[in-house]
Amino acid sequence: MAAMDLALTTSPDHVLALCGELIQRGGLESSLRGLGFAAVALLLQFAAANIAFKGQQQTRCCLLLLQSLLHTKEQWLLAHAQTAAELKPLIAKICQRVAFELEQIRRLARTEALVDALLAI
């Protein structure tokens, strides 16, 4: 938990490196359990800024971080609905970025299929 708090005060690369290490060791969820509102808000801001447009590895790490964060903090978010309401704009931004990223993947797949069809002619 202390490592996550410290990483949040540094660069996105440090946060991603720590998340990657915690994912490999299976300790990501346990590192998120004791986080308070401020740290949860910082992690959501981080995810909103880094979930797409930064490359496949960063997007994967951000998605795993977001999944673990929402899984470990689900009961907290439900119990503190007023506080959680402040996080809704961040969650909405994350949803928009994920939807955009999925649309880009869909378009790329369609383009790839067209190229394959043209090459088969």
Write the layout of secondary structure elements.
Blueprint: H1 2-8, H2 12-25, H3 28-32, H4 37-50, H5 56-79, H6 81-85, H7 88-120
Transmembrane segments: 35-53
Keywords: Membrane, Transmembrane, Transmembrane helix
Question: Can you put this structure into words, describing what you see?
Answer:
- It contains seven helices and no strands.
- It has 121 residues and is mostly helical.
- The chain has one domain (2-120).
- The chain is elongated.
- The termini are far apart.
- The chain crosses the membrane at residues 35-53.
- Keywords: Membrane, Transmembrane, Transmembrane helix.
What is the overall number of helices?
A: 7
The percent of residues in helical segments reads over 70%
What is the count of distinct domains?
1
Structural class: mainly alpha
- In terms of DSSP E residues, the strand content is under 5%
Q: Give the distance, in angstroms, between the N- and C-terminal Cα atoms.
A: 57 Å
Keywords: Membrane, Transmembrane, Transmembrane helix
